Amino acid sequence: MPYFFHVLSSCQLRPALKRIVPRTQLRESKRQEREQLHERLQNLKPALLRSLLSRVLDLTLLETLQTGQLERLRFRLNFLTRDLAPLLLSDEDSDSAPAGPIGPFGLQGPWRLFGFRGDQVLTRWSNHELVANEVLEAMSKRNSEDNAEDLDIEWSARETEIYGGDRCRLVRNMKQLTHLEDDHEGVLLAVVYGAVCAVGSLPHPVSLWALDEKEAEAKAQAMCKAIRQVIPTRAQYLLQPSDVTNNKGGLIPALLAVIFMLNSTLPCSWKHEVLHSASFAIQSAVAQEVYKEPRKKTKGQSGQELSFTPMDLPVVPDAQQRKRELQKRIQMWLIEPDDSFNFDAPTMADPVVKSIFQQIEAMAGPWAVEHPQDFALLLKEDEAAPTLLALPAHELLLRWVNFHLKAFRRDPDAGLLNLNELDLALLVELLTKLAPDVMNLHEEEQTALRMSHNPTAAEAASLSLVTKVATRCTGYEILTEEVLNDEQTDMMASFLAELMASGRAQLPVRKSSEIGQHMETLASIVLEAANTQNTQLVSGLCSYLRDHQQSLTTPGDGYDVLLCSTM
Known about the structure:
By secondary structure, the protein is mainly α. It has three domains: 194 residues, no CATH class; 106 residues, no CATH class; 127 residues, Actin-binding Protein, T-fimbrin, domain 1 (Orthogonal Bundle). The protein is 56% helix and 0% strand. Helix 4 crosses helix 10. The longest helix has 42 residues. The N terminus and C terminus are likely disordered.
């Protein structure tokens, strides 16, 4: 009998042992692979690798955004939920609109705006923002009434006093603009910044902190600092203090157009209660204000003086709070009755569409003005793609400079032997090709360079042109007259490295390259999805959400499940 149990156990254990041995070998093989991968990552500089992978993902997502025409859809959805009636004049009511179907705004009047030029619409929008002081004066009068405590007053007496000082005086002195170039003190930029920070509500006086500067130069610098926070492109450093004071060359209207398109401050249409459509993070205006004096006593206050700090104002919610708020909105949206016979295109009021756009723009936003690039063009014939990760920084920069010099001069033998050969003339040549948009902002300097008839005048003109253009290409003044006069090639190389990293590399993607083939595959997939009918998209999305309502409302992973399923 013991022998029988021994044989039985052997028969049962032998197959199990056979299964265990391969699994043990498999685990050992995976462990070795992980160790080898870890060693390779250490040798390939993990920080550089992560940065490169992140850049590739960003550019890929941007290509998807453009190929599927999602950016155009985003603008369309943004303005379909806005009320354009405030841009009309008093005699342009709905009765004077041309005959035709009523538009998505529920009014005929705003359709008159579609016949206007872009600069006319921007001028009317700017004037609409400038008349906010009338509302603020009404609030000031309400604060002075005896029954002010019983009224729903958003601002305190201290805040009204602050705005009623120099800030309000500057805004009141602004007349209605005939042209956008009429603003020479940057007041319009400050008002627009305040409207963006208001997140769809009335502007708060704290947001106009840039108007506190007395000197024109300091005020212009403060205005640039403020407006750069609400420009979601890599071109934010194009704006310089001289543009605010001179306001010429068309740069201010271009920046206002970007803000108007991506973050319209117009009120919501009566048919839509949309969330704030800003797709980029701006610093809280509260952080820019420091109150040095206590709040003055108002009617009804006790003898104790109340202190006022910026923390009394609403602050921007953190990520967890936004997540909880979004989950609540999703739950409310799910339980609303659904009209199965009326399918509309998704709007920014839908939490799902809103979250998708937020995720896309959060990743693609930094590269909104760029195109995909193929750094494989910097490789030699006998080198593989991973070689780029192991190249020293100076060697990579040298290859980038030589690539552009060969392309500009159409000479395969053109190029530098090392970065010590950099000079002023070479910088002028590179900036002319790599930053033509910035060069166009300095026509006077370019004309002076062309009219130079002797080497001394040409050098002075080149020096002025390079320093001014370089300031607009980076966030800090790395190239100065001293650097160029002393021919400090290390600082010149540092500037070119910053120029390369700022998105002006301009390394085109060839269709035959590996990244070009990936782009073609993504384009075919996105175009297939873009041709899908909106009714099918919305109906399928709604049914999916209702089927997975339990997982969405579960704390913790509901938000992740939603994003993963919809993306």
